[in-house]
Amino acid sequence: MNLSRLQMIVAIAVIYLSLPACTFAAEEKETENKVTMVIIGADRLLEDIEYMVNDLASRNKIWKEKVEENIELFLEGIDRKQPVRIDVFFDEKNGEFYRPFFPITDVKDFRNNVDAFGVTNKPISRDVYSLAGAFVGFMKIANDYALFAPEDQRASIDPNVPEIHAPIEPLKKADYDAGIIINHDKAGLEDRRKSMAAVRKNIISGIKKKSTESVEEFDFRKLLAVNRIDNFERLFSEVKHLEAGWITDASKKNGLGTLNISGIEGTDLAGTIAAIPDLKTSYHTIPETKDFVATGRMLFPISAANQEQIKATIQAYQPVASIRIDRKEDLNDKQKKAAKDAIAKLIPILEDGLTLGSIDGFVEFRRIDQEKSDSLHDMVAGMNAKSGRDIEEVIKMLPEIRDTYKTKMDTATVGDFHFHEFVLEDNVPPMFKSLFGSPCHFHIATSEKMVLFSIGENSKPWLEEMVDLVSKTKEQKAPENFFTFKGHFGPFAKALSARNPGENFVELRKAIIEAFSEKYTDDFIEIYDKQADGEIQGTLTVEPGLLRLLGILVANFADENL
Questions:
Q1: Which of 127, 213, 427, 535 could form a disulfide with 20 if both were Cys (CB 3.0 to 4.6 A apart)?
Q2: Closest C-alpha to 462, from 475, 447, 445
Q3: pLDDT-based confidence at residue 501 (cuts at 50, 70, 90)
Q4: How far apart are CA 353 and CA 391, in angstroms?
Q5: What residues does 199 pair with on adjacent strands?
């Protein structure tokens, strides 16, 4: 039970983010390479979790008997009004380690609490305790806080105690329920890169080949993991300042997340951020659809490093695609060859598009019948291309893959755009069938510099309208936000219920479907990201649907483990 309680608290933190004698440091070493996570106060955390689990997810019994009870046990001896802080470090040889700061009201009560969680503690000096069991290391009592460090990191808390509140003051001032803050300097750049070595090794060594996958599929899956490590390492190494925070407001029935991030001068991250204001788009004349289901815009630079990473990933996928095509029992040899040939033509087009150095696109998504909640949908989208008309060769090949794939080429011409039609008469992917129906109609408009398309049997006039707008756009403009998304998650949750989930996502799929079922209408999500003052500034606003999902996940974990 003790370990389960500890797992419960850690899970909540991750999902939610997630005067004895002593010597104090004169000032905080801001050159420390770390990520600092903060919960502004235990009472605030408890209120938020109750709102999500009890009020929104309606897991009343689980909340009362498992979640609340275990959180209350964890809080014995803790000052519920003061911030809880956890510093995360990465070590080149040993991987990640943690330095928690817990505010306390009574040393004896807190020591008993720690012991109840399977961590024995014995005094070795007036204010320092050795720890064993579930956590091996040291605990330092200072300034009404209990500081923890692994056994080989005692010097990080004793004898000099790091400043507790000053480094997290921006998060406290913003009054976030929970937040993350990073402050790095240029001098520690290479140390931060090297510090990820053990983490990288541990993650890669944990990826094992499945009996059902080929060598190529295993290598590709491992490459995706390496890409994630590379991206995190680049962010952790190159970030100068990062501040992220979250506020759950039950009275307003929403959640608000904010993000501010800047890069160290001369790094790939700083260069990417600096390039954003110079980008311009022709899609600024595309109007936001009335009564949209979803609407979005994106104009973002692709750095040279990211271009190489994406290109390598695309190339690694080609043999994987060939193997999966060979496994399809409903295709004959001729059809399989056509499918492989289509992939072989598509990959150079994607690679060529990367050389544009940016992603510039839009999407509009709507119900066909606004009066019916179960209406099918249509959508229109577009993005810039290096040689947009090259995609026509791939479209022409589709009927060779399946008899139920029908194409019509050059059905119309508008300015520089050539219109084509592609219909899936059968074998429509379940999610597409749920959203757009069956047969599923695609209309594609290609020009040298753009590819626009629509999905929906009667969506062609909408596509033609958008093509006409961009064709008449003479002046490109830099948007206020480089990324915008607003949308209702409900239709996509319904579509998700139509497909078979992978074995690792069964429970998550169930939770998403429940959280955004048709009986709820609080499914709106809104994201804005812009570049200002040399940094990325972003906001995320969600209606209770996403908070309900978090509540379901916490309740499910508690029910299974406590």
A1: 127
A2: 445
A3: low
A4: 11
A5: none
How many residues are listed for the chain in this entry?
562
SS3 label, residue 397 = helix
As given in the structure block, the two tokens for residue 364 are 């509009």
What Rg value do the Cα atoms of the chain yield, rounded? 27
Q: What is the rounded CA–CA span in Å between residue 131 and residue 119?
A: 6
Q: Contact at 8 Å (CB) between 419 and 412?
A: yes
Encoded amino acid at 49, one letter: I
- Kindly report whether the global pTM for this prediction surpasses the value 0.85: yes
Residues 320-341 have pLDDT tens digits of 999 999 999 999 999 999 999 9
Classify residue 173 by burial, with Cβ atoms within 10 Å: 0-12, 13-18, 19+. exposed
Distance between CA atoms of 418 and 409, rounded to whole angstroms?
Answer: 8
- CA–CA separation, 297 and 156 (whole Å): 45
Which helix H or strand E contains 201, and what residues bound it? helix 197-205
Instruction: Report the pLDDT averaged over residues 290-307.
Output: 96
Contact 37, 12 (CB under 8 A): no
Q: Quickly list H helices, 239-332.
A: 268-275, 304-326
Nearest alpha-carbon partner for 282 in 451, 147, 535: 451
Closest CA to 73 of 119, 112, 123, 101: 112
CB 63 within 8 A of CB 555: yes
Beta bridge partners of 96: 90
Say which DSSP state 277 is in.
G
DSSP state of 505: G
Q: What SS3 state is found at 119?
A: strand
DSSP state at residue 155: G
| CA 265 – CA 246 distance, rounded (Å) | 28
Q: Which of 368, 375, 380 is nearest to 518 (CA)?
A: 375
Q: Which residue shows structure tokens 């039609």? A: 421
Handedness of CA 110, 111, 112, 117 (dihedral sign): positive
Rounded to a whole number, what is the distance in angstroms from the first to the last CA of the chain? 7
The per-residue pLDDT for range 506-552, each reduced to its tens digit, is: 888 889 999 998 888 899 999 999 999 999 999 999 999 999 999 99
